[in-house]
Write a structure and sequence with these properties.
alpha+beta; 2 domains; 4-stranded antiparallel β-sheet; elongated
């Protein structure tokens, strides 16, 4: 019996991990047509910025917002969005700062690849790491506060919420932690190039990824808490605001999700290199960049979003009549079933039913539009036929009047000819 206890505990742990794995799902993906090198999500998960051949900005539903910005360089290597989505920093061979509306506030030419940018919660500070081996810190106005030269390329930087701490990872195999003033607090040699770093909101925890395929977690004092071996170079790590959750993206094609203790909660296979990940403040949303932009969320959140979207689609659908209304009235029933499933905790079923309801409502909208367009076309055709009828009738009446005038003129000419002939015959007889 004693031997069974550890086995039962292990099985329970595995079951718990499996349950955690089932709690997250893919909300949407977006194909940019090129490799996605960097992603960044706002604290509340409302906005997602991505860097590929241009800078993209999405809302939570996956809708591409009304701006994108193409720099002079072929690709955007890195992006970072402020907590409320008001500011977006980007890096190519230059550091850029934009507003949410896409207005360029400033740019700072470095001349070499800017591999990483990170913006503080309110957008007051912007950190950057470059292929010139330096870490940079700027103010929101674009003023350079300081720079620090490491031993090799700086692949990644991350700034705490208020800008008090800046973490950096370099190909000199080290993780660095600086204060806002540029003072180096510590550095840790991992044994291989550090490809990604992420610092918690208060600076208590620092996650790092390295070329030896490992994910690391440090505390603020520089103590290594744990490491996890993936199947490829870890090019992206991101830590939640309080350090409770860590997301990682590896060149083994997977997105990983850990708790603070290093337990793997779930993973997702994209099928391509994962270059970047970003996690919302509370860990509810995870963005990833690979061959596409991906957004993940817990099943309950995904179901809630799907229900809200279906409700909006049904309420905004135009009224329809006849067979279209009969065929598509099932959307309301599906939405009600989805809400009931959600209340019972069956989030998977709730999401599936809500998506089906939304699609039906969308079909109703499109079919109603088609119905109205058909009605408009029929009315236009009727007006055209009526107008053509009027034109032909007028032409016929004109022809008829001309014909009558011709017949009258002809009869008049014949009559006059007959009178002339009769007169000539009369003169001939007298003669």
């Amino acid at each position: 019996m004693r031997r069974l206890i550890p086995l039962l505990l292990a099985l329970a742990l595995l079951a718990g991990v499996h349950a955690q794995t089932e709690k997250y799902t893919l909300l949407w993906s977006y194909d940019t047509g090129g490799t996605v090198y960097s992603v960044s999500i706002s604290a509340d998960g409302k906005y997602i910025a991505a860097g590929s051949n241009i800078v993209y900005l999405f809302d939570r539903s996956g809708k591409l917002l009304f701006w994108s910005y193409k720099t002079g360089r072929i690709i955007i290597i890195s992006v970072s969005i402020s907590s409320d989505g008001s500011y977006i920093a980007a890096g190519s061979d230059t550091v850029y700062l934009f507003t949410r509306d896409g207005n360029l506030l400033w740019s700072y030419k470095i001349g070499m690849g800017v591999d990483s940018v990170s913006i503080s919660s309110d957008g007051s500070y912007i950190a950057a790491g470059s292929d010139d081996d330096k870490v940079y810190l700027f103010t929101r106005d674009g003023n350079l506060l300081w720079s620090y030269e490491t031993g090799r390329n700086v692949n990644s930087v991350s700034i705490s919420s208020d800008g008090s701490y800046i973490a950096a990872g370099s190909d000199d195999d080290k993780v660095y932690l600086f204060t806002r003033d540029g003072n180096l607090l510590w550095s840790y040699e991992t044994g291989d190039g550090v490809t990604s770093v992420s610092i918690s909101s208060d600076g208590k925890y620092i996650a790092a990824g390295s070329r030896d395929s490992k994910v690391h977690l440090f505390d603020r004092s520089g103590n290594l808490l744990w490491s996890f071996k993936t199947g490829g170079i870890v090019w992206g790590v991101s830590i939640s605001s309080d350090g409770s959750y860590i997301a990682a993206g590896s060149w083994d094609g997977k997105v990983y999700f850990f708790d603070r203790s290093g337990n793997l909660l779930w993973s997702y296979e994209t099928g391509r290199y994962v270059n970047s990940v970003s996690i919302s403040s509370d860990g509810s949303y995870i963005a990833a960049g690979s061959d596409k932009v991906y957004l993940f969320a817990p099943l309950d959140t995904a179901a809630k979003i799907a229900i809200s979207s279906a409700r909006d689609a049904i309420s905004s659908a135009p009224p329809v009549v006849g067979f279209i209304a009969q065929r598509l009235s099932h959307a309301d029933s599906l939405l009600k079933q989805a809400e009931e499933a959600f209340a019972e905790g069956d989030y998977q079923t709730a999401r599936r039913l809500a998506i089906e309801a939304r699609e039906r409502a969308g079909s109703r909208r499109y079919l109603a539009t088609a119905y109205l367009l058909l009605l408009f076309a029929l009315v236009a055709a009727a007006v055209l036929v009526y107008a053509l009828h009027r034109i032909l009738r007028n032409l016929y009446l004109r022809w008829k009047r001309a014909r009558e005038e011709y017949e009258r003129a002809k009869a008049e000419v014949i009559r006059e000819l007959e009178e002339v002939i009769a007169m000539l015959e009369e003169r001939s007889r007298r003669a």
